[in-house]
Amino acid sequence: MASTSGSGVLGYITSNIRESGRNPARTLIGFVLAWIAFALILWVLPTPTGLKPEGMMVLAIVVWASIMWVSEAMPVGITGISIPTLLIITHALPWDKGKPPLGQVFSGFTNHVVWLLLFALMVGAIMQLLKLDRRIALAILDKVRASNAGRVIWGFFGVNLVLSFLIPAAVARSATLLPIIQGVTDLLGNSERERQAKKAIVIQTLVYGSMITGMFIMTAHLPNMILVEMFGKGGYHIGYLDWMLLQFPYLGMFVLTQWWVRYHFKTKGVEIAGGHASIAKMHKNLGPMASGEWLLLLIFTGVALFFMLGKNSPIMKVHNVQLGIIALVGFLVLFIPGLFPFKWKQIEERTMWGTFLLLGGALTMTSAMSTSGLAGWMADGIHGMVVGQSWWLVLLIMMVGTHVIRIGMLSNVAAVAMLAPILFELGKQLGLHPVAFTMLVADTDTFAYLLPTQITAAVIAYGTGTFSTADYAKAGWVCILLAIAYGILIMAPWYAILGMPVWDASVPWPFAK
Question: How far apart are CA 118 and CA 75, in angstroms?
Fold first, then answer.
């Protein structure tokens, strides 16, 4: 029940906001600023030269959504579902004979990657109920005989990698691993070296590990899905295994972050109290796997095989069914009566519906930016600053610019939804490969490690109280520089080897149509 402290309407509202766990000043300022910016762009500011009125309307919505996402004035999912509403109200997309273009404005929610995400969210919810996530984590830590801080971090990297196939979104994996990681760090003492080791374990596992492994699996990171959908509409189709082939070198970034974190926090030689035996005991206490756990793994493995053997499969083409349709069939199998002993309410409570709404809204916004001409207009504005520069310098400028923009943004998904269509158009204008260019710049956004407030998974990690914002920033700025260098020196050449040289837009598309 809301507190009655304070006086009048403002006191009532601020009390409710505070009780919901948010900062009243930040929330109210963000909410008001979002609507003021929306109104100014829509009704006061003149339409810039080269931008169509529809583009101006979409710009108002993009700015509104960005402020809402940054300030968290409204839940991110509600902001996501509100994007189609504003597209209808403003007529940003043309109406047909007095009827709103519902098919267009809700296209993000009918997209196959959204249903792919929802299936993965449901699998993750059932896995949590079965405690299979905990079993997987402890089994891997037991297998690698984790007895010191370094082995624990590498063990959890393996955990993150496995869970990336099963649980979409880094924030979901971080939330899943949080109690397990806290159980492990509790085995450490309170000496200076052990406190430093705790910082290293929490930051590397909950933030760096979950984000880096997510880049590798198409369904494990929401920005991946935004990019895949946008590229597909542009005629560049990327399959499930194609994505893994393109992105697996990014796993090497964890080697670099681990080298730096180990040096920075001086974790070498820090032992876990009880060593491997303590972790082995926690694993043993779980007992043998139950039938439900085996069933869930069997169902997911079957669906994953269908993901991998689709029309763009480099292994074997078995079918032409879209990933989202396979996911919908997966629902039919997942909820066959009697397979699992859980009520729908239990699964519903553990499904991240806000993430589902966020992705749908982000996809809709990305599409509207392209169709309204806003993305092209914004790309024109950036074009003048980088035209004539070498490809690597353009990448460097855009990567650094992305990290500057990201200082004030919480959502990695929102940032990529806003930047991706601009980057795609800019790549075309500069004569660069639009897919390689967009991926390289958008991927560096994943390494926004300067402040915990830039990534939701980092907010979860920060909530453990293990490290300060200063600890995080001192470790993170070096990781950002490593990521930028890695993108230009490692990933750009790798894309070229696979037939996507960022410096040459004329090459034929290397993957199946």
Answer: 18
